[in-house]
Design a protein that fits this description.
Layout: E1 16-22, E2 39-40, E3 43-44, H1 45-51, E4 58-63, H2 68-75, E5 80-83, H3 88-99, E6 106-111, H4 119-130, E7 135-141, E8 146-150, E9 153-158, E10 164-166, E11 170-173, H5 174-183, H6 191-197, E12 203-206, H7 217-230, E13 234-248, E14 252-255, E15 258-261, E16 265-266, H8 274-286, H9 292-295, H10 309-321, E17 325-334, H11 344-355, E18 362-367, H12 373-376, E19 380-392
Parallel strand pairs: 1-4, 1-6, 4-5, 7-12, 17-18
Antiparallel strand pairs: 2-3, 6-11, 7-10, 7-11, 8-9, 13-16, 13-19, 14-15, 17-19
Helix pairs in contact: 3-5, 5-6, 8-10
């Protein structure tokens, strides 16, 4: 499975820069928004392109002057933003000029509309530069037959031997690519062509079929499918909860939403459902939203004696409002008595009902503490719980 993180570079990290071009208008994509700003599984195409190079070196992004405010709002603080020019070559040169004199020795130039570039592709380019290549770029050998056509009719054929589909990032010695841009009499479709004009060899490294350039509307859908297959568009959160309540007078206890007959009760501000409290805190914890006390302060008299399902339902609804679904929940009750086994299925069903999930996503079990500690002395009941939340971006 491809990673979306770049590996440790073979060149010194502080000598590498990544220049990402995102100043185009993307007219072939259609719509009012340039393709680099379109959402891809919850984040912009450009943001995902930038993330692929996280930790590699300095990142410079060229954007259209009309997009500068948007770029500052979405990306500001993470990168260096440079106003692009009328052509791609103009934009690249503007970014390169910013790097001159900064101590950068090598630069990777990448299309902002290629959000799925893999760590292995990036690493291959960096490795080639580290081995002494003045320039290196990923390419994929053409395997399909090639036609020429006009008005949806085949008009001729082309030999595919020795042909490659060019990809990015394309890596260069900074002095080499900057000199090539300064010497260029006319623009080029990519930077490899510019250095080729100077008579320099460009090493081809393996490309990746997933490293597609978002160009047509269908490309965005395809990129989304690739992300789902990789699993990199999922945000998985894990939360833990722990709670304790002491025994007091009474003839029953509430555990995981089920009333269980007992010769004692549990003492608490609410109904003292120790299992449900632990699970509620596990969900809040996974969401980084504190604990029950933050949302239902015990100092507030309205929650005195309240049914704990109010708290759990709130936590579950908060998770849904933040885009998460429950992967699974596991609750363990620690006590000598009452016996939990006869009630475990009912507890499982009740917790699932409150949270609005399938019962098979919820586990309720019990253990003793072998007569040790306060639970072993039957002074109270403890509970630990774990909740997994999943958000598909």
């Amino acid at each position: 499975m491809s990673s979306d993180r770049a590996p440790r570079p073979a060149l010194p990290r502080d000598r590498i820069a990544v220049l990402i071009t995102a100043a185009g208008r993307g007219t072939r994509m259609g719509g009012e928004m340039p393709k680099q700003w379109l959402p891809l599984s919850g984040r912009s195409v450009l943001a995902r392109s930038i993330d692929a190079f996280a930790g590699l070196g300095r990142i410079v992004v060229t954007v259209h002057p009309d997009d500068m405010d948007h770029a500052i709002g979405e990306l500001g603080g993470r990168i260096t933003l440079v106003a692009g020019g009328a052509t791609r070559s103009d934009s690249v040169r503007a970014g390169l000029e910013v790097l001159e004199g900064s101590g950068i020795t090598h630069v990777l130039i990448h299309d902002g509309a290629r959000p799925l570039v893999s760590a292995s592709t990036i690493g291959a380019v960096v490795e080639a530069l580290a081995e002494g290549a003045e320039a290196a770029a990923p390419g994929i050998a053409v395997t399909d037959a090639l036609w020429r056509g006009a008005e949806n009719v085949v008009t001729g054929f082309a030999d595919r031997a020795g042909l490659y589909r060019a990809q990015t990032p394309q890596g260069f010695s900074l002095p080499t690519i900057l000199a090539a841009h300064r010497a260029a009499a006319e623009a080029a479709p990519d930077d490899v062509e510019l250095v080729q004009r100077q008579g320099l060899a460009v090493r081809i490294v393996p490309g990746d079929e997933d490293n597609l350039k978002i160009t047509w509307p269908g490309d965005l859908e395809r990129a989304g499918r690739i992300l789902r297959m990789r699993g990199t568009d999922m945000d998985v959160r894990l939360g833990n909860g722990y709670d304790v309540h002491a025994f007091g007078p009474g003839d029953h206890v509430w555990l995981c939403g089920v009333q269980v007959a007992h010769d004692k009760g549990l003492v608490g501000h609410s109904d003292a459902d120790v299992g449900m409290h632990a699970l509620t805190d596990a969900i809040y914890g996974a969401l980084a939203q504190g604990d029950i006390g933050r949302h239902f302060p015990p100092s507030d008299p309205q929650w005195k004696g309240a049914a704990s399902e109010i708290f759990l339902r709130h936590a579950a609804e908060l998770a849904r409002s933040m885009g998460y679904r429950l992967g699974n929940a596991d609750v363990t009750l620690v006590c000598e008595r009452p016996k939990i086994g006869p009630h475990a299925d009912a507890m499982q069903a009740r917790l699932a009902e409150i949270m609005g999930v399938e019962p098979e996503r919820v586990s309720v079990k019990a253990t003793t503490s072998e007569r040790l500690g306060f639970t072993g002395r039957e002074e109270g009941i403890a509970s630990i719980a774990t909740a997994t939340l999943i958000r598909e971006a």
